[in-house]
Specification:
551 residues, alpha/beta, 19 strands
């Protein structure tokens, strides 16, 4: 791993890098691959099952996909992403995957070193991003092969491991290992700088009004360096991709001895590939900052491993109806810990994620959904508790909640076998407050309920944290009056270049633009690499040294 202190000297003249990628998860890794001279061509030994797309590919089969008209190729394609290039790249890598087929890719990759664009990938840990923080034996939503990046077969790095004939999902450990090895196998290490934290990204004007900037000076009032510590920049043998703007990127690198080494550099283009797991969404209710309220499933795993929770503990409250909440329910139930599961939606809501997952591939999530439907809280008078069957009355969950009622039509025959009796769901409920005496107050239909709990897990989503941008980057959103949200308000981009509509030279990809699955975020890499390569070709200038000038 290179050190930034080896890259950026002297500090009074920071270097200018053609492309800086912020984030070293699968988005940043894939883009680094495409910027390193790897080109996707049509594999003429294959036939794409979509005849219209295949005819288009045949028309320009001598050209790499990055040099073709992505809008033309994407036209008419449909898929699970709202970004057309993401759908295009996915169908080239995994033809007809949504129909359950596993056809080979129709692309072959060629290394053309003269097409290399110098770039740096800045990440807070080793390559792989947030995948390194995920632990445990839970499986990915996507199939393992959908998590792979171009040019390296996932099964080749995992010894072809398959758990059964219907499932090829992976553990987080397998995926994080795959991404680390991918960077090494493709020789991308020189582009990656680990353990770096970006603290500021500012746009500098570089037009005729700031002619002296070209001579190595910035104006303090033009959004440039604020403390006067860096007063200029140099471009030594680097071809410019974007003559209109220049970006100043500041931050620090954390070394093994916990030393922080500050850095500052200039970039022709900046790519936001930070993902969406930085900031958990909060309820905004009273008591949410109390020490027994958490916003990460890892806190539950830690409490279980340290034996702070067991069958005699008060219930764990899980808030949310997504997959993270379902993972928490499974973790607690598998550890014989009581669960109270609260969510705003009704069990029949068509937007529940469980309704979109095939039962054969995701049996554990359908198990949770069955419990959400069948083991619901009903306001039975306390006196009726003595009339319950002994097996329920003596269960731990029955100490607090009335007997879960079987919802008609949701469970049939012996389908309730292997469900967890110590689980109770609260559909169409919300948390009103958490109290210091370890109680939570829930609001249902015209009723308030108080329960004693051992801990609360609020798992209702995450948002990106773009604190290093002006106004936390809110002005970049499709609705600039609201914070950036991967689902509700993604960054507004050009659909075929992934360049921010409000900031030339600033690009975004992955969850920031609504592509939350690895399978589709690779399309952002294709769009950005294609855009930058075309701009260089238009100027008749390409990086010819095949290496990075800054490492």
């Amino acid at each position: 791993m290179p050190l930034l202190e080896e890259i950026i000297v002297p500090q009074e003249h920071p270097p200018t890098v053609p492309v800086v990628i912020i984030g070293n998860g699968p988005s940043g890794i894939c883009l680094s691959y495409l910027l390193s001279g790897y080109k996707p061509y049509l594999d003429t030994t294959t036939v794409h099952p979509n005849p219209i797309l295949y005819r288009k590919l045949q028309e320009t089969k001598h050209l790499p996909i990055t040099e073709q008209d992505l809008e033309y190729l994407s036209e008419g394609l449909e898929g699970r992403s709202g970004n057309p290039v993401a759908v295009l790249f996915d169908t080239l890598l995994h033809p007809n995957a949504d129909f359950g087929y596993e056809f080979p890719p129709v692309l072959q990759w060629r290394r053309e070193k003269q097409q290399h664009i110098s770039h740096l990938v800045l990440g807070r840990a080793t390559p792989g991003g947030a995948w390194h923080a995920m632990q445990g034996s839970m499986l990915t939503i996507s199939l393992g092969i959908w998590m792979e990046l171009p040019g390296v077969n996932y099964r080749d790095l995992t010894n072809g491991k398959r758990r059964d004939v219907t499932s090829d999902r992976a553990t987080p450990e397998e995926i994080s290992s795959y991404y680390r090895n991918y960077v090494k196998l493709k020789g991308l290490q020189k582009n990656f700088v680990d353990n770096t934290y970006v603290t500021s990204v500012q746009k500098l004007s570089r037009g005729h009004e700031d002619a002296d900037l070209e001579n190595g000076h910035t104006h303090q009032g033009d959004g440039g360096v604020g403390d006067g510590g860096n007063e200029g920049f140099e471009e030594k043998g680097v071809e410019c991709l974007n003559k209109g703007v220049l970006w100043e990127v500041r931050g620090y690198q954390q070394l093994q001895n916990d030393t922080h080494v500050p850095f500052s550099l200039f970039a022709e283009n900046v790519v936001l590939a930070t993902g969406a797991s930085d900031s958990p969404v909060r309820l905004g209710v009273e008591g949410e900052d109390l020490p027994f309220v958490f916003h990460s499933i890892s806190d539950l795993g830690l409490a279980v491993s340290r034996r702070k929770l067991d069958i005699t503990s008060d219930p764990v409250l899980v808030v949310g109806a997504g997959l993270s909440a379902a993972d928490a329910v499974l973790c607690a139930c598998n550890s014989n810990i009581r669960v109270l599961h609260v969510f705003r939606k009704s069990i029949d809501d068509p937007d529940l994620i469980f309704k979109q997952l095939p039962k054969t591939l995701y049996p554990e999530y359908h198990k949770v959904y069955n419990m959400m439907c069948s083991q619901t809280y009903t306001n039975v008078p306390p006196s009726s508790a003595s009339n319950r069957p002994k097996s329920i009355a003596s269960s731990v969950c029955a100490k607090m909640c009335p007997k879960p009622q079987l919802a008609a039509g949701n469970m049939a025959g012996n389908s309730s076998v292997d469900l967890f009796p110590d689980y109770t769901s609260f559909p169409e409920h919300c948390v009103v407050s958490f109290q210091s005496d370890m109680k939570c107050l829930l609001q249902g239909n015209n009723s308030l309920k108080a329960f004693k709990i051992s801990m609360a897990l609020v798992l209702i989503g995450t948002n990106p944290n773009l604190f290093f941008l002006k106004g936390h980057g809110q002005y970049l959103g499709q609705d600039p009056t609201k914070p950036i949200s991967c689902k509700q308000n993604p960054i507004d981009i050009h659909p075929y270049t992934f360049e921010c509509t409000k900031e030339p030279g600033l690009f975004a990809m992955g969850p920031l633009v609504g592509d939350n699955f690895v399978r589709f975020l690779k399309g952002g890499a294709l769009g950005i690499a294609s855009c930058l390569l075309k701009r260089l070709k238009k100027k008749g200038k390409l990086i010819s040294n095949g290496g990075n000038n800054f490492i």
